[in-house]
Write a structure and sequence with these properties.
By secondary structure, this protein is an alpha/beta fold. It is 39% helix and 14% strand. Helix 2 links the parallel strand 2 and strand 3.
């Protein structure tokens, strides 16, 4: 299997100064929420935490959700004043620039572009093994198993307690995006590798 990571607008999504005195430590969730986005595991993790001066910002509308799950989301969100539901936005960059970390607990992804946008914005990413994309566990964020609220809780708490690490991971995340091979170039190399494997010598032709 060959993987070519998509490109991200690194001018639109770029690092901003964070950590002003008294500012809440903000975790961002950004998705068009269907049940496979795993929001229930994030809400379960967040509800079990009691972090002083911290917020969970939820951005994006609802997709096709069973009524029972929709009501469960709404009740958990409304019961917790540290959770803010923003809804749809045409300017996601405004939310990345005020966040300290992205939490993206998706159960499955073809291409989770929000992780790349967050990394380009200079914030670490907590995500799952099925949605990791360019995220390197322990360097640019954390990669946890799917359906694991306890693991999400642990990593959310860790970044809250180790803000210097969160800042360093954010810088490394931005660097990873800047160093990423452009999508077109990566696809071209994949084609050349396949040609060389199937027809030795052909892949070397420009």
């Amino acid at each position: 299997i060959y993987v070519a990571e998509p490109d991200v607008d690194s001018v639109r999504f770029r690092p901003y100064e964070r950590g002003a005195p008294g500012q809440p430590f903000r975790y961002l969730y950004m998705a068009y929420t269907a049940h496979l986005k795993g929001l229930h595991y994030l809400l379960e993790a967040w509800t079990a935490l009691t972090l002083e001066n911290a917020e969970l910002i939820l951005v994006g509308g609802y997709g096709d959700l069973p009524d029972e799950l929709h009501h469960r989301y709404d009740s958990l969100i409304q019961a917790n004043p540290s959770i803010r539901w923003i809804g749809d936005t045409g300017r996601p960059e405004d939310h990345y620039r005020t966040a300290d970390a992205l939490v993206f607990p998706s159960l499955t992804e073809g291409c989770g572009k929000v992780t790349l946008e967050a990394m380009a914005s200079g914030i670490p990413v907590i995500t799952t093994e099925n949605a990791r994309g360019l995220v390197e566990d322990g360097k640019t964020g954390f990669v946890v198993p799917i359906r694991d609220a306890a693991a999400l809780k642990e990593k959310i708490r860790y970044l809250y307690d180790h803000r210097d690490v969160a800042a360093r991971m954010g810088r490394d995340a931005r660097a990873a995006v800047e160093q990423k091979k452009p999508f077109g170039e990566a696809v071209y190399e994949i084609y050349r590798n396949i040609l060389e494997r199937e027809h030795p010598g052909v892949g070397m032709i420009n």
